[in-house]
Design brief:
Shape: elongated
CATH architecture of the largest domain: Up-down Bundle
Order of helices and strands: HHHEEHHHEHHEEHHHE
CATH topology of the largest domain: Outer membrane efflux proteins (OEP)
CATH superfamily of the largest domain: Outer membrane efflux proteins (OEP)
Radius of gyration: 36 Å
Number of strands: 6
Structural class: alpha+beta
Oligomer: single chain
CATH class of the largest domain: Mainly Alpha
Largest sheet: 4 strands, antiparallel
Distance between the termini: 53 Å
Number of domains: 2
Strand order of the largest sheet: 1-2-4-5
């Protein structure tokens, strides 16, 4: 059994065996009310505190233009089924006419009115093309539903990716500030030692150059951090300047089961882009049947009733009632090659749909294997980066001690500081990449759902960051 990567309560069903599939019609109705409530609540809450991942996601569900466009497209595609069904149901047409007439003869002038009305009921009896259209509409609706669900999953990933990118930019900014502050303290110490003649002027110049470089890094990182928030504006329609950080106790674990083929098989069954491509193939097959139906006869039953009243044409005028029931048979003999051309066209479209399905299937397999491998690499990378912080801290302490006793120079100290903050940032970045790959793998497998956002949000808390982690200096 494939387990969820983010831990959930034990009674929850396995994420890989429980594919995410929105009931889109219910979703559209429910989100209208919930969206208004959450949007209003979050709008008043955000200015006083940093937003968390769940709040960003709730806002995005109701404000992301890409998802809104996908929803409109899905609802439009759903109407095809009703339109196809209408082609098999009775059609009733009522019409009428009234005229004011004047007739002039040698004997007299005559004015009279003509009035008539009619009702025609037409019921298709044998319309093979319309029957296949109805069957095709079911495939079109299923394809649209799968595409819409895929868009919903993509929104989940886009929200998480944007959020994590901002946290990464913040950590880079925090690391730059921490490094600059450490270099500044180092510069002050070197300056004091130079003033009393313990070090050469070159140490002061090296420290000053390092401080200037770190200041530039802070400026660049600050600009990148500010820009990173723009993605939230696109998703939610609101501006943000502060979000909560990822907890230090977030678990990093290998995906279960440790079986690549199990993930691939699940993706082949549950990936929604693949489901949509499969339904497109089924729809294309139905299109061939629809085109071939152009050779088949059609039978319609028709009931007709009409009344007409005329004040002219005789002393008392005239009145006519017509009732008729008939079966209409039409047998296509020759259509200028249209039917054959449409059949060939449908055949090419089927081949196109099949090729697209094959491409999608191969892409899904490739991405699943790549992400599974990347996720295992991510876990090892995070553990290695965590050890790298301890090693860099120890190296800095040793280098600082060596500088004090004269066995190391200031350049060695500055480089050791730089390596420490780089190690801290690389550790944070590795954790974010692990989360991205986890969510992406679940999206490929078709199990990514809002529950994953809310489960991840449990590890989102107040401000932390690399800037809080200061190396030991002497």
């Amino acid at each position: 059994m494939i387990q969820a990567v983010f831990k959930r309560p034990a009674h929850k069903q396995s994420a890989l065996n429980r594919p995410f599939f929105f009931d889109a019609a219910h979703w559209v109705q429910k989100k209208a009310l919930l969206g208004l409530i959450s949007t209003v609540a979050i709008f008043f809450a955000l200015p006083s505190s940093a937003a968390n991942l769940a709040e960003i996601y709730d806002l995005s569900v109701n404000n992301d233009p890409q998802l809104a466009a996908a929803k409109a497209g899905y609802l439009a595609q759903r109407e095809i089924k009703s339109q196809a069904k209408a082609g098999l149901l009775p059609r009733v047409v009522v019409g009428g006419a009234a005229s004011d007439n004047k007739r002039r003869t040698k004997l007299n002038d005559q004015a009279y009115n003509d009035n008539s009305w009619q009702v025609v009921i037409n019921q298709p009896v044998f319309r093979l093309d319309r029957w296949f259209l109805l069957q095709q509409s079911k495939n079109i609706e299923a394809q649209a539903k799968a595409q819409f669900t895929a868009e919903q999953q993509q929104l989940i990933y886009r929200v998480a990716e944007s959020y994590l990118n901002i946290l990464e930019a913040q950590d880079r900014y925090g690391a730059s500030i921490a490094e600059r502050d450490a270099v500044q303290r180092q510069l002050e110490q070197v300056q004091q030692r130079f003033d009393v003649g313990l070090v050469a002027i070159t140490d002061v110049l090296e420290s000053t150059a390092a401080f200037d470089t770190s200041t530039v890094s802070v400026i660049e990182a600050e600009g990148a951090q500010t820009i990173s928030f723009e993605s939230l504006l696109r998703l939610t329609g609101q501006s943000f300047s502060q979000i909560e950080s990822l907890s230090a106790d977030f678990p990093v674990e290998y995906p279960e089961p440790r079986d690549e083929e199990a993930w691939v098989n699940a993706a082949l069954q549950q990936n929604f882009s693949l489901i949509a491509a499969r339904e497109a193939v089924n729809s294309a097959r139905k299109q061939i049947q629809i085109a071939r139906s152009g050779h088949m006869p059609t039978v319609d039953a028709q009931a007709y009733y009409a009344e007409s009243r005329s004040g002219g044409g005789g002393f008392f005028g005239s009145a006519t009632d017509i009732r008729a029931m008939e079966l209409q048979l039409n047998v296509p003999i020759y259509s200028g090659g249209l039917t054959k051309s449409q059949t060939r066209q449908a055949g090419y479209q089927l081949e196109q749909a099949q090729r697209n399905f094959d491409l999608t299937q191969r892409t899904v397999v490739e991405n699943t294997r790549s992400l599974y491998s990347a996720l295992n690499t991510d876990v090892a990378r995070v553990k290695a980066r965590q050890k790298g912080i301890d090693s860099s801290q120890s190296a800095l302490d040793a280098t600082q001690t060596g500088y004090e006793v004269g066995t190391r120079n200031i350049v060695d100290v500055l480089l050791a500081q730089q390596r420490l903050y780089l190690a801290q940032f690389q550790y944070a970045s590795a954790r974010y990449q692990y989360i991205k790959d986890t969510l992406r793998l679940k999206e490929i497998v078709g199990t990514l759902s809002p529950e994953d956002i809310y489960a991840l949000n449990k590890y989102i808390e107040g401000e932390q960051g690399i800037g809080k982690l200061q190396p030991t200096t002497r």
